[in-house]
Amino acid sequence: MSNALTRVADHKARVAGLVGMMPVVDLPVADCLGLVLAEDVVAGVPLPPFDNSAMDGYAVRAADVAAVPVRLPVVEDIPAGRTAVGPLAPGTAHRIMTGAPVPSGADAVVQVEWTDGGTSEVRVDRPVVVGQNVRKMADDVAVGTTVLDAGVVLGPAQLGLAAALGFGSLPVRRRPRVLVLSTGSELVGPGVALEPGQIYESNGVMLAAAVREAGGEAELLRFVPDDVEQFHAAIAPRLGSVDLLLTSGGVSAGAYEVVKDAFTGRGVEFTKVAMQPGGPQGAGRYQGVAVATLPGNPVSAQVSFEVFIRPALRAAMGFAQVERPVATATLSAPVTSPAGRTQFRRGAYDPESGRVVTPVGGPGSHLLSALAISNCLIEVPEDVTELAAGARVAVRLLHGE
Ligand SMILES: Nc1nc2c(c(=O)[nH]1)N[C@H]1C(S)=C(S)[C@@H](COP(=O)(O)OP(=O)(O)OC[C@H]3O[C@@H](n4cnc5c(N)ncnc54)[C@H](O)[C@@H]3O)O[C@H]1N2
Ligand code: MOO
Ligand SMILES: [Mg+2]
């Protein structure tokens, strides 16, 4: 048995190389939230598409209301959505609503509060200047303008703009499809009273959520027993439709290591990475499909996802920023760390009160409740075995980009 450890950076590079760039597809605008735009978006219509009123009131010629009060006959009523409106004759007014087209001949709108609100005749009490309360055509966007650059991450405002310009779909890099598979004959589902030796399955739920949070699509198989035949039977029908097979469990040094047994010598390389938690890892390609095998201990699985899988999925989706934000913080309590391994300790980071980070729980990779109340991973470098309270450390924030 070899004791050589794989460097974190080397395993990371290996995983990153497995999942290729996702293809560009046209998706309905409403489904593009959080995706990366693949081509520039160029305006084919102006915004606004026509001169329209910014106020509920009366379209007038400013010259006709220069001396107030003045009474004008109300000739037309123009709600938003009316398309054919005759021109405004001098000395008259058209009642007009916000967003309705300003008739030719009118050069301003008097808001209703500055009038008596009449419907056949209106008394205007205050003058307006030319252009007042008129939103000019193309004021916001001229035809031919590049309004969104390829590479931008599509958020609500970007999707709103595309919709306003009449786009029904946008070219984006699609979400990677990840088959999340939990192995372990001890795993059962909710609603079952636990027999001694059984546990409720949790890695699958956690990893599928992590895939979705990263922007991917997850299909979840939660209860694959430690049996190579059943493992192959579970994955075989699904391999053709996934971009990544992500397993948990069955990769360590014991007997019944189902994932190791199923994939050894078949394109997946198993190794021990110089990190804690998350030591035992595997990565490769099985029947052409990218495979990453995470260790079964829940904290190990989740930390491995953060370190190796999330950046790979983000890169495949075309994000420029694939890593979580990293801050420098002051440790509130000492920590110890194994020699020769990067330790990722769970922490509670308080960005407000002096950027202090407090280690949460111990280093044990079964301590799921500590993970659930942490918001960062404290990174203790490979060559460091002890850090005193007050030491400056890098913390990898578990929320945001
Ligand atoms: N002799 C050695 N034993 C172990 C070593 C080692 O180097 N030598 N490494 C330890 C480390 S570190 C880890 S991490 C684990 C990894 O083991 P496996 O990947 O084979 O995982 P399992 O044995 O299947 O499970 C480990 C642990 O996690 C629980 N588990 C598994 N799947 C789930 C799930 N879906 N939901 C909730 N909990 C799960 C499982 O019941 C075990 O308790 O190996 C160490 N051993
Ligand atoms: O790597 Mo194991 O992941 O330390 O518990
Ligand atoms: Mg197992």
Automatic annotation (TrEMBL):
<dbReference type="InterPro" id="IPR036425">
    <property type="entry name" value="MoaB/Mog-like_dom_sf"/>
</dbReference>
<keyword id="KW-0460">Magnesium</keyword>
<dbReference type="GO" id="GO:0006777">
    <property type="term" value="P:Mo-molybdopterin cofactor biosynthetic process"/>
</dbReference>
<dbReference type="InterPro" id="IPR038987">
    <property type="entry name" value="MoeA-like"/>
</dbReference>
<protein>
    <recommendedName>
        <fullName>Molybdopterin molybdenumtransferase</fullName>
        <ecNumber>2.10.1.1</ecNumber>
    </recommendedName>
</protein>
<keyword id="KW-0501">Molybdenum cofactor biosynthesis</keyword>
<dbReference type="Pfam" id="PF00994">
    <property type="entry name" value="MoCF_biosynth"/>
</dbReference>
<dbReference type="InterPro" id="IPR036135">
    <property type="entry name" value="MoeA_linker/N_sf"/>
</dbReference>
<dbReference type="Pfam" id="PF03454">
    <property type="entry name" value="MoeA_C"/>
</dbReference>
<keyword id="KW-0479">Metal-binding</keyword>
<keyword id="KW-0500">Molybdenum</keyword>
<dbReference type="InterPro" id="IPR001453">
    <property type="entry name" value="MoaB/Mog_dom"/>
</dbReference>
<dbReference type="GO" id="GO:0061599">
    <property type="term" value="F:molybdopterin molybdotransferase activity"/>
</dbReference>
<dbReference type="InterPro" id="IPR005111">
    <property type="entry name" value="MoeA_C_domain_IV"/>
</dbReference>
<dbReference type="GO" id="GO:0046872">
    <property type="term" value="F:metal ion binding"/>
</dbReference>
<dbReference type="InterPro" id="IPR005110">
    <property type="entry name" value="MoeA_linker/N"/>
</dbReference>
<keyword id="KW-0808">Transferase</keyword>
<comment type="function">
    <text>Catalyzes the insertion of molybdate into adenylated molybdopterin with the concomitant release of AMP.</text>
</comment>
<feature type="domain" description="MoaB/Mog">
    <location>
        <begin position="179"/>
        <end position="315"/>
    </location>
</feature>
<comment type="pathway">
    <text>Cofactor biosynthesis; molybdopterin biosynthesis.</text>
</comment>
<comment type="similarity">
    <text>Belongs to the MoeA family.</text>
</comment>
<dbReference type="InterPro" id="IPR036688">
    <property type="entry name" value="MoeA_C_domain_IV_sf"/>
</dbReference>
<dbReference type="GO" id="GO:0005829">
    <property type="term" value="C:cytosol"/>
</dbReference>
<dbReference type="Pfam" id="PF03453">
    <property type="entry name" value="MoeA_N"/>
</dbReference>
